[in-house]
Amino acid sequence: RDVSLGCALPRNARGAAEARHTPPPPTALTPPTMGKTIALFDVDGTLTVPRKKATQEMLDFMQELRKHVTVGIVGGSDLNKIKEQLGDDAETAYDYLFSENGLVAHKAGDLIHTQSIKKALGEEKLQKLINYVLRYVADLDIPVKRGTFIEFRNGMLNVSPIGRNCSQEERDEFEKYDADAKVRPTMVAALQKEFAEYGLTYSIGGQISFDVFPTGWDKTYCLQFVEADGFDDIYFFGDKTYKGGNDYEIFSSDKTKGNTVTSPEHTRKLCTELFMS
């Protein structure tokens, strides 16, 4: 049921693929069945180079794709950051736009849902969590630190050990450093132990950060809205589909046909083969 890299990702191969964070060899695509089909897309690494604007070629392709299937965007970032990457008209350029995993949900340009981590956790627990993160970051010994180590979003906290104010060059360097030093996975493990009773999920995404949100508020949160509209096939395309990545839950959900991609170019190729051939 999972489709990956223009190929099916068998369940028994998924564990090995996750461990390597690399895709399995290609096999046959599973075409959509007749009926209502929606294609949901992650942003960073799927439609754009991480944290960069989508190319005009990619934006044009997505509009062409809408002639064949319903298209939705599901990103972990807040609405403003998604609009920086996909354009100021992002709410109306796609059939659905789910920012913060769908905790802020738009359909045909209309806001249809919002949810708040502040309301879910309460101020006392929220402050304990924030204070712990700041102390942890203060004690970290890493090559570079900048600023904005915690970004408070409507439905989640985004935590960055290096700080979101770093330059693109520093982002790229931290991503390489983290691949070996495991700064983010180690920090996540510490938070899981310290706040086990809080019912939180920690999801590593992008180059420099991870998200913290109540369990169940991962990208599968957005599925309730598309399910309610009666889609027969729900396809998902994302790059961080390994366990611990912020696309994993929706990719591996029984409700979706999950696809692992490695770049915007790969996304175009896969969608052309699936929906436009």
What's the topology here?
Blueprint (H helix, E strand, L loop, with lengths): L2 E2 L2 E2 L2 H10 L16 E5 L14 H10 L4 E5 L4 H8 L3 H4 L2 E4 L4 E4 L2 E5 L2 H5 L1 H17 L10 E3 L4 E3 L8 H14 L1 H12 L5 E6 L3 E6 L8 H6 L4 E6 L9 H5 L4 E4 L3 H12 L2
Parallel strand pairs: 3-4, 3-12, 4-5, 12-13
Antiparallel strand pairs: 1-2, 5-6, 6-7, 8-9, 9-11, 10-11
Average pLDDT for all residues: 89
Summarize the helix and strand pattern as letters. EEHEHEHHEEEHHEEHHEEHEHEH
The secondary structure category is: alpha/beta
Quantity of strands, as a count? 13
Largest sheet: 7 strands, mixed
The 3D shape can be described as globular
Q: What's the tally of helices?
A: 11
- Portion in strands: 15-25%
Give the strand order, joined by hyphens, for the main sheet.
7-6-5-4-3-12-13
Radius of gyration: 18 Å
Distance between the ends = 20 Å
Walk me through what this model shows.
- By secondary structure, the chain is α/β, with parallel strands linked by helices.
- It contains 11 helices and 13 strands.
- The protein has helices at about 10-20, 55-65, 80-85, 90-95, 115-120, 125-140, 170-180, 185-195, 225-230, 250, 265-275; strands at about 5, 5-10, 35-40, 70-75, 95-100, 105, 110-115, 150, 155-160, 200-205, 210-215, 235-240, 255-260.
- Strands 7-6-5-4-3-12-13 form a 7-stranded mixed beta sheet.
- Helix 2 links the parallel strand 3 (about 35-40) and strand 4 (about 70-75).
- It is globular and about 55 Å long.
- The two termini are about 20 Å apart.
